[in-house]
């Protein structure tokens, strides 16, 4: 099954892969001749996909408590977990659709320790009551990898030379968690009771120095260690090369 959508950011073509249950997503920005492919996976298999006006729905096959189940789920860019339940002020939530599964909890922007959904009544209780919002669901880890670095110099191409990216400058928007080549980027400042507060959303430039290791590709990998907000607008980097 394939489906096409249109948004303010561009067009998307999404195709369900019947072999492994993944989704091939092609983001198209026609004004700049950009075609950006990506693969979407989940804890289970995507079976089908469809669009109602501008809302994307999928049929997902999952294994829950040793049983095979099929759920109709909706993509929501404000939800940071898969197969999740969300809400406002609350101290617990019923997660009967994920019995025996390990779930992540994001309460008022704070990531709580993982919990396993118990048997009936399937109640997941938060460490502290949520005052504004909560999300409880299955974790997924985004990963973005740049193409191999191939700078063109007056002396010729660097293809076949070992390269080291030693500085990365990331332009971010409303971001709370990010890693660059496996290194955690800090978003908190020192101060009293900072661990009791949510991670502030950061917009601006984050710089990572001292990246070690040579490779022939010279690629940058962006990922996360926590299910929080991340929007990367662009990357700039400095690189050295040698034989």
Helix/strand layout:
Elements (H helix, E strand, L loop, with lengths): L1 E6 L2 E7 L6 E7 L4 E7 L4 E8 L2 E10 L2 E8 L7 E6 L2 E5 L7 E6 L2 E7 L6 E8 L3 E5 L4 E3 L6 E2 L2 E2 L4 E14 L3 E2 L2 E2 L17 E8 L11 E3 L8 E11 L1
Antiparallel strand pairs: 1-2, 2-3, 3-4, 5-6, 6-7, 8-13, 9-12, 10-11, 10-13, 14-21, 15-16, 17-20, 17-22, 18-19, 18-21
Q: How far is the first residue's CA from the last residue's CA?
A: 47 Å
User: How many separate domains?
Assistant: 3
What is the spatial order of strands in the main beta sheet?
1-2-3-4
Which segments are poorly predicted (pLDDT under 50) over 5 or more consecutive residues?
Answer: none
The helix content, as a percent range, equals: under 10%
What is the overall pLDDT average? 86
Shape: globular
Q: Write the element-wise H/E pattern from the N-terminal end onward.
A: EEEEEEEEEEEEEEEEEEEEEE
Number of strands: 22
Q: What's the main sheet like?
A: 4 strands, antiparallel
Which class of secondary structure composition applies to the elements? Answer: mainly beta
CA-atom Rg in angstroms: 21 Å
Please, how many helices?
Answer: 0
Percent of residues in beta strands? over 45%
